[in-house]
Design goal:
single chain; about 140 residues; alpha+beta; 6-stranded antiparallel β-sheet; 5 helices; about 40% helix; globular
Length: about 140
């Protein structure tokens, strides 16, 4: 899934992100505010992955990578990588069974198992916040 922000320069900012995401920008601001309130200051780094993939926002707590935000037209995707302990915690969570299966069945790489969540509504926001909490505490 490629970002809709593909011009190499300048790096995107909140104004560019709001323009692309439209009404879904409120979901990003809610996630960001909730994470800041719960875990304190975080770092955000825009990374350019080439003309085919475009820009993604790397969200870090201290130096720990929590997720990548991939801007799409009128919504966004949050991409996670989970280690074995986090996968175990996800399997024991109250997240939807289909999402748990998706994580459990994801191909295992050296850095962990990947999961992407399309954020278009508040239910997805709640899932993202739950997954971040699992990641931080696992």
């Amino acid at each position: 899934m490629a970002s809709v922000l593909t011009d190499k320069s300048p790096a995107p900012n909140d104004r560019a992100l709001a323009r692309v995401l439209g009404a879904s920008f409120k979901h990003w601001t809610e996630i960001r505010a909730s994470l800041q309130k719960e875990y304190g200051p975080a770092s955000e780094e825009w990374k350019y992955y080439g003309v085919k993939s475009g820009w993604a926002l790397k969200y870090l707590l201290k130096k720990r990578n929590l997720f990548f935000l991939i801007p799409l037209e009128k919504h966004f995707t949050i991409g996670f990588i989970f280690g074995d302990r986090a996968v175990g915690a996800i399997e024991q969570s109250t997240l939807p069974p289909a999402l748990i299966r998706e994580v459990r069945d994801a191909r295992r790489y050296a850095e962990g198992r990947g999961l992407r969540i399309d954020v278009r509504n508040r239910a997805a926001v709640r899932q993202v916040l739950t997954l971040v909490d699992i990641k931080v505490n696992s």
